[in-house]
Records
---
Amino acid sequence: NAGVTQTPKFQVLKTGQSMTLQCAQDMNHEYMSWYRQDPGMGLRLIHYSVGAGITDQGEVPNGYNVSRSTTEDFPLRLLSAAPSQTSVYFCASSSGGGRGYTFGSGTRLTVV
Amino acid sequence: GESVGLHLPTLSVQEGDNSIINCAYSNSASDYFIWYKQESGKGPQFIIDIRSNMDKRQGQRVTVLLNKTVKHLSLQIAATQPGDSAVYFCAEIRSNDYKLSFGAGTTVTVRA
């Protein structure tokens, strides 16, 4: 049981490039979310999903797209990377109820 | 033990003392409140949760208190150990769509 798996762990992009951060969970969780964490700050919600085929925006969705074609996968796409998107990105999943969400180990993204 | 009445970003605790970390929340419609621990370079890890219809819940060395009147949440750690050094976040889950929102973190440093 791997939990929540994020790839890659590290990535450097040039301004204007696009890329997809991968997130997969093997716990059959309905709910999945993407967060970004900037130095000295908390986690801010980018996008979330309450089930396959259903997504919605969080606090900071601009510049990011998501889709949820399967229960297991919830990729985050950066359309045109900007230095302001330099951050650590966390994916999380939950079955609902107590215990909240299980988090992946994060992707550290640098945009130069 | 060491405690703070209001939320402070840092807390220094003597090993063996009790710690109290405070958090204010904003959403009265939240169904669950959760404390997460984040160690350097890792994703947030679930510590304990409390449902909105409860005012106290105990775990192993940890106790969470919920005061809905003043929208205040606290985490008490008994006999603080060096392994408790981390950033602690409170979070709340909205009941209608299970969206997880984080509060400000508190960095706990345990002095030997």
---
Amino acid sequence: GEDVEQSLFLSVREGDSSVINCTYTDSSSTYLYWYKQEPGAGLQLLTYIFSNMDMKQDQRLTVLLNKKDKHLSLRIADTQTGDSAIYFCAESPYSGGGADGLTFGKGTHLIIQP
Amino acid sequence: SAVISQKPSRDICQRGTSLTIQCQVDSQVTMMFWYRQQPGQSLTLIATANQGSEATYESGFVIDKFPISRPNLTFSTLTVSNMSPEDSSIYLCSVLSWEDTSNLFYEQYFGPGTRLTVT
């Protein structure tokens, strides 16, 4: 079946850039997503990238997709304390975008050091 | 967009009992899902709640253990039956909302989750 892998923890200094990495196994993935989960809150979609794109930028967020290596990354520029959360990589193996249940990684806990 | 609420937000239950979790959406949605997030684990899809028909369960999940109701387009329930400590998890309701029909892109919204502890 599909598999999505992430590092469990990432620690960065406030003001630095954070880069969260994700690898996936399903070559038919159509959409890849980054979700954010703050303590006690539900999941929030941060951004997504369609599989025919290499990069997507949205304010402080940059998503890079290497489809050949099945590698996805999320870069957060100028990391702030409010960015402290768990970040989930997810993929949809079906056409039609997120029309079916997603496959999630275990999440990367981003820790911000002052 | 869609705003989702879940009840209860958390509960502590005894082994062998059952708990029904409610999911309410502020708009009509076609597709609703139930996920489980066990401690230290990723989210796992339990089932798709279909309005007007039986839920579609993922491998490893069965209707007798996780019966689901979907009486209308804004509401669903998930029951965790005959609970054991292994059922201790966060259970999340999720819905799909059309965001970009030209690219057939749906956005998936998640509820705040129900934290279940089974003793």
